[in-house]
Automatic annotation (TrEMBL):
It catalyses: a tRNA with a 3' CCA end + 2 CTP + ATP = a tRNA with a 3' CCACCA end + 3 diphosphate; a tRNA precursor + 2 CTP + ATP = a tRNA with a 3' CCA end + 3 diphosphate. This is Multifunctional CCA protein. It comes from Solilutibacter silvestris. Pfam families: PolyA_pol (PF01743), PolyA_pol_RNAbd (PF12627). Signal peptide: none annotated. ATP binds at residues 8, 11, 91, 137, 140. Catalyzes the addition and repair of the essential 3'-terminal CCA sequence in tRNAs without using a nucleic acid template. Adds these three nucleotides in the order of C, C, and A to the tRNA nucleotide-73, using CTP and ATP as substrates and producing inorganic pyrophosphate. tRNA 3'-terminal CCA addition is required both for tRNA processing and repair. Also involved in tRNA surveillance by mediating tandem CCA addition to generate a CCACCA at the 3' terminus of unstable tRNAs. While stable tRNAs receive only 3'-terminal CCA, unstable tRNAs are marked with CCACCA and rapidly degraded. Transmembrane segments: none annotated.
């Protein structure tokens, strides 16, 4: 039996990137042999085994990789006579189809190293089309490696387009789509993910609510030269700069303006009430992809409240308190910082405003701390009940008012 390191670990090492998970492929062994050696099988029909000491994944070389409806991974066939080349040929991209033997030798029958140097994402063989998720994976790798200047090979882009046109993407299970989207949102350049998906037509299929923002003009006084889709790309990239690797902030950044595709079009669009219009498409997207509750909730908050945060200085003191109550900040204080981050990304995601200050972020946090400083302990004479709640609210509004006047005087 021979063991090879494969996939992302070899690729990232060659790119000089920090090591992630290591996956191995095992050639010339049967499941029984691995079990005798103490490996533990993961899943019943799945020829992947965990190493007895390291817990790392060892997969038997496979002849087929397919994703089916209702299945979140591969349906695979492994047989002892499958060669390493057979296995590599059925992988997605040449840069992911390089194997490394235990003595360090690289086995690279599909020229993955050449493509790594040329910064090209190229499919290995027609077997690419066996798994439609690979269209999304291509876009995700574009986001992950954006700083390195990767492009998608023309023949791969053509194949991706054909896969989209044949309707195969519709069969993808939502969990797999969300997994790729959340990985893209955790990368430094979500914009590259969106661009690649648009280029092959997959954005319309996977994220139609986001696709609808392209071609929708922004308010002329902000930046007439770009549309709302491009604005969202900039906001997502800014969110990744402000909160690197945080897909919670990323998802809210991606979806906070969905309503702009639904507000009436006119010469100078003002997108009146887009914060309300945005909720139904956001909920549809979140339900379809089974987006985690926390992500959906923050996205709804950002959609509803972003305009309020932008004009925080215009809000009445009691309206500021109501905002904190609506976002449930007294139970979940981290939401204040999260909402402020999305709003800052929104503001700085406007052409020419990348370096501008966003004082609302610190102000929102400051006013929340002041309001949070008022507690039931300040009213020892009032018994728990509605009267106590009312007293706390009034005192919080006064505390907010005082904090605002003292800072405006300063
Ligand atoms: N749909 C897929 C998923 C995975 N793979 C293969 O399985 C390897 C491991 O997949 P995964 O862990 O999902 O991705 P990585 O390439 O390791 O990338 P990352 O570092 O982002 O995890 C890939 O390199 C690729 O060879 C594939 O061919 N097709």
């Amino acid at each position: 039996m021979q063991v090879y390191l494969v996939g992302g670990a070899v690729r990232d090492a060659l790119l000089g990137l920090p090591p992630g998970d290591r996956d191995f492929v095992v050639v010339g062994a049967t499941p029984e042999q691995l079990l005798t050696l103490g490996y533990r099988q993961v899943g019943r029909d799945f020829p992947v085994f965990l190493h007895p000491q390291t817990g790392e994944e060892y997969a038997l070389a496979r002849t087929e990789r397919k994703s089916g409806r209702g299945y979140t991974g591969f349906v695979v066939h492994a047989a002892p006579d499958v060669t390493l080349e057979d296995d590599l040929r059925r992988r997605d991209f040449t840069i992911n189809a390089i194997a490394q033997a235990e003595d360090g030798t690289l086995i690279d029958p599909y020229n993955g190293v050449r493509d790594l140097h040329a910064r090209v994402l190229r499919h290995v063989s027609d077997a690419f089309a066996e798994d439609p998720l690979r269209v999304l994976r291509a876009a995700r790798f574009m986001a992950r490696f954006a700083a390195l200047g990767f492009t998608i090979a023309p023949e791969t882009l053509a194949l991706m387009r054909a896969m989209v046109d044949s309707g195969e993407l519709e069969a993808l299970v939502p969990e797999r789509v969300w997994q790729e989207l959340s990985r893209a949102l955790r990368s430094a350049r979500t914009s590259a993910f969106l661009c690649a998906l648009r280029e092959c037509g997959a954005l319309k299929v996977a994220l139609p609510e986001v696709d609808a923002l392209y071609g929708v003009p922004q308010r002329a006084e902000y930046h007439p030269e770009i549309d709302t889709g491009r604005h969202i790309e900039l906001v997502c990239d800014m969110a990744a700069t402000l909160a690197p690797g945080d897909d919670l902030i990323g998802f809210a950044a991606l979806t906070h303006d969905l309503g702009k595709a639904l507000t009436p079009a006119d010469e100078l669009p003002k997108h009146v009430m887009h914060e309300q219009h945005g909720i139904p498409p956001l909920q549809a997207l979140a339900a379809r992809l089974k987006v985690p509750t926390e992500h959906r909730q923050l996205a709804e908050i950002a959609c509803r409240e972003h305009l309020n945060v932008h004009r925080l200085h215009e809000l009445r003191d009691d309206t500021v308190l109501r905002l904190f109550e609506r976002i449930d900040a007294f139970r979940k204080p981290e939401r204040v910082r999260q909402l402020a981050l999305v709003c800052e990304a929104d503001k700085r995601g406007r052409a020419g405003l990348e370096d501008s200050a966003y004082p609302q972020a610190a102000e929102l946090q400051r006013l929340f701390e002041v309001a949070r400083g008022v507690t039931a302990g300040d009213f020892p004479d009032i018994a728990p009940g509605p009267a106590l709640g009312e007293a706390i609210r009034k005192a919080r509004v006064m505390a907010i008012a005082k904090a605002r006047t003292s800072s405006s005087r300063a």
